[in-house]
Each structure stands twice: as C-alpha cells, then as structure tokens.
Amino acid sequence: MNNINPNLNTNSFIKIKKFLLSKSKYNFCNFIFFVISISLIFNFLTWIFINSNWKVVTSNLNLYAFGSFPPDQQWRPTLWFFSLLSITFITVYGPKWNWLRKNLIFGWIGTVPLGIYLLNGGLGLNPVMTRHWGGLTLTILITSCSILFSLPIGILLALCRRSSIFLIQKLSSFYIDVMRAVPLIAVLFFGQLLIPLFLPVGLEIDRVWRAIIAFTFFVSAYIAEDIRGGLQSISNNQIEAAKSLGLNKHQINIFILIPQALRVALPAITNQLIGLFQNTSLMSILGLMELLGVSRSILANPEFIGQYIEVYIWLASVYWLFCTIMAFVSKKLEQKLTINKGY
Amino acid sequence: MKPILTAKNLTKSYAKGILALNKVSFTLDQGKVLVVMGPSGSGKSTLIRTINGLETFDKGELNVLGIKIRPDSDERKIQKVRRRVGMVFQQFNLFPHLSILENITLAPIQVQKRNKKEAEEYGINLLCQMGIESHAKKYPGQLSGGEQQRVAIARSLALQPELLLFDEPTSALDPERINEVLDAMRRLADQGMTMIVVTHEIKFAKEVSDQVLFIDSGKILEISSPEVFFSNASHERSRKFLNQIN
Question: Considering Cα of B121, then B126, then B131, then B132, what sign does the dihedral take?
C-alpha cells in the first residue's frame, strides 16, 4: 500500500479509513443504507399497487400478444406459443429416453416452420398479411427464425475461418470482421432500405423477412466467433485420433469437432440469443409492430397518453421473463450435457 | 514371412539442423512385435507417427502394407493406410461426447460404411475381449484410465487393422492400472497381431517383443532381439539407457 500511492498514506486518509472500518460507524453506515433501501422499495410498491393505473396493460393484452392479428384467427399464434412452451418443458423436465433426447433438436427446429405456417396461413388456413403480425408473436418469430438461420451459417463461417484454403479463410474473416465493426441498427437500416434496391424489379421481400435476414447476417458473425472459440478449445489429440481412424476432414468436422465445439460454445450462444431477443426491439424504430412497436402505438392512443411508466415497466418484465426462461433452459441443457457425458 | 512395413532412409527435420529422424531404415514382418525404446526426445514418437501419416517426413520412403508413401504423397493415399493401421495414444484420445460403443462404431460406420447393427455387434464383441462390455453405454469421462485405454484399443481394432501402433500406451496410467492394458496387448500379440509399441515397460518388451529398436537423436542405434538387447546390448548408449531405467 505504501509503495503504490504515497498520497494515500497521509494522516487524513488513515483517519477516514479508521472511521469507515470501526465497528460502530460500520453499523451506522449499514443502518443508513437499510433505511434508504426500505424507503425506496416501499415507494416503489405503493406506486405499483396504489398510484399506478394498469388499465393501459390489462385492456391491451391482446395487442401485446398478437398485434393486429385478426381476432378470429388468434388461436393460431396461441397454438404456436403452446407448442413452444411444451417443447421447452419437455427439454427441461422431460423423461430421459434416449430416442427422445436425440430427436428433441428436430422438434426445436420444427417449431419455426410451424410458427411461420400458423402465422402466414395457406394450405387450409386463411392467409394473414405480415403487417398484421405483431406483439410478442412477432418478437418471438423474428428471434427464432434468426437464430435458426444464423446457427448453421455461423458454424460454416467458423469452419471457413479455420480453412486451409487462403481465399475462403480471408473471405470469411473479412465478413466476420465487417459485421462486428458495424452497429446492428445500421445493418437493420441496410436490410430495410437497401435490400429492396438491390433486388430485381418484381421480386419483393417482405418487411418482416428483411428484418430476419438482417438479424441473421449480423448474429451469424458473432455466433461464428463463439463457435471458433469452441473449436479452438478442442485439443489436437482429438483430431489426430479421428485421423488415425481414417476419417476424412468433413467427417472429423461433423462428428468430432462441431458437437464438442457447440457444447463449449453453448453459454456464449445463449448470450447471443438473449441479446438477439432484446435487440428485436430495435425494429420498432423501423416500423415493425413487435413488443416495443405495439407499446409505442398504444402510448400514442389519446386514452392512454402519458402512461409510459406503466407500459415500460410492463415491457421490462415481459422481456425479463423471456430472457430468464432462455437462460434457465440453457443452464439445464448445459447440466444435462455435463452430467451425462462426464466432461 | 512377408514384410508388412519397410522404411527406407526416413529423414525429418523440425528446425534447421535438428533432425527428428535421421536416415531411419527397418523392416517389420507380419505377426511380429517391434518394441521401440529410447530416451525422451529421441524421435520414437515421431517415428511411429510417420507410419500412419500423423507426421510428414522430408526424405525417404515408407512401404506400409504395400502402399508406398513418399514425402509428397497426398492425403487420400495416407487415408488408405490409416484405414488399415490402428493407433493407440498415450492420452487415450477417446471422443468425450460419444458413448463407449459410439466411439468404437464411429469409424466402421462412417469409414467402412458398414451397417449400424453389424458394427455394434462387432463393437460389443471387441469390448468383451477387452473385458469391459458392461461399460458400453457409459461415456469416456466415467471410466478409469486403464478402462479408457482398453476402449481405445478396442476402437483401433474395430477397423480390423493389419498393423497396430502403440504410442506409450501405459505412460499416462496409474501404476495399478498398467497391467490390465499390457495384458490386453499381450493377448493381441498371442493372436498374431503385428504391432509396433513405443514403451518403457521392460518386462513387457522382454516377454512379448520379437525385436527391440533403440533410437536416439533420430538415429537407429540398434535393432536386436530382446534377449540380446536386454542382456548384451551392443551399443554403449543403449547400455547406459537401460542402466538408467532399471
């Protein structure tokens, strides 16, 4: 201490230190802190239960959940929610049957086309235009589609970045570095405003799909880096063992490297997933009616004007709930992989 | 006896001036067991790893099971060798994310394109031979070192190799666990498997090997029968080495 900063060694510093560390003063500080926190919590709770008006939330629950999805068709997103919930439940608490565990991944992948089919309609269901998609439904759809597309692209980019072919390696490094150097909002603007300009006349991609494409571009670069980290953590011994068994490069990637890298990268990928879920709120700036977009339009309604505190606290808790669920599922998954395989 | 492996003037240098292998030449006949000994850093691991192409070499020629390998041979040719030559590593190198049985059947199913059921039956059969069939559904992390190494031997046998390479198979094991692995290797030798074993286990070398190869600084100093090598080694360096490890 003496050598680090001579100014700290003055008399006054020692006095202050003595004061702060002496037991009675320490208790005094504790007491002050306790009183302040109690009064803060008390004020917050009185506001929540007495002073606030939650009508802005309760009377708009439908909007928050489905946006302007036609009321007679709202069973479709509801059904999708239930399928998501049940597969989450099976993943975390389901039985340990081997065939179930092995096919669960296909169940998860299947939820995305199921969601698109239920929302979009066709094949026996009334078609619903994407401009009626909204609320939590849209937020979850953008998140799940983007993650489903960006995982394989991310894996591919990570493998390319380690490729021995110079051009492929440089191209993928360039892509990853560019994407990580550009802010997400710029990529989203690019997706909304510039993609239509580059497409040939007559071909049009819908706003929601443009958002999903932009998110996929962005997130896959980050996922690629997470997976590259996972790949680097696998010792060279594994590759040698696989080589000595006569497996070729692709077989080594598919059967040895990627499964182990994904297991290592799982916490980091969960992080990306949670970030992605929250970042979908940026789409409200670009006019999509996802959770935040719906809230903003509700706040613009003269009936609820000025009630932004209620709306944002409600929004924060919805985001908190879903992010916590995702973190929880990932943690359970990690534990399962760890216990079963004795890493 | 037909030679299974012929090495002619194998030379490899890691950095300039330092030779890992210096004009190494030897032949190995079918059904024989060759034990490779030498001080650490002598090039014994490098030698055994060049045989299945895990290490490249700069000059010379290898003939493994009739396949000629030169320094410029491509990956595909080396893969042909690897499919017929098994290897067991010091650190076992099992795949931690696959069960024991999956570890063993991965190569037969993917490389030899055998059907799954047949490969699994054969895998269980191999595990029985190694005395660990009860662990088939466990994962490598749940097994002891000796058991893992026996799984590794079973895995290398799954491709029905004509030559087996062992790179210090007992060096990473607890002393108590060494014998179970050596016994398994002994049984293989009795069945007539051609093997090259890098090891410091003198007792094993004396009992099982047909030839002992002593290597130092990348150069073969002596190849002789175990009787001669352990009682009356011709080279001074080998006598000194044997004195030190005894």
Answer: negative
Among the partner-chain residues A247, A340, A341, the one whose CB lies closest to the CB of B107 is A247
Q: Map tokens 């309609």 to a residue.
A: A121
pLDDT digits (tens, 9 = 90+) for A143-179: 999 999 999 999 999 999 998 899 999 999 999 999 9
Within A190-307, residue ranges assigned H as helices are: 195-198, 207-233, 236-244, 249-251, 258-279, 291-299
Residues of B in contact with A341 (CB under 8 A): 96-97, 139, 141
Q: Which of B50, B80, B91, B95 best probes binding to A when mutated, by most A CB atoms within 10 angstroms? A: B95
Query: Cβ A240–B89 below 8 Å, yes or no?
Result: yes
Contact B145, B151 (CB under 8 A): no
**B24 phi and psi angles, rounded to 5 deg:** -85, 125
Cα-Cα-Cα-Cα torsion A282, A284, A289, A290, nearest 10 degrees, comes to: 30
CB atoms within 10 A of CB B11: 16
Tokens of B117: 């059921």
- Please give the model's pTM, rounded to 2 decimal places: 0.84
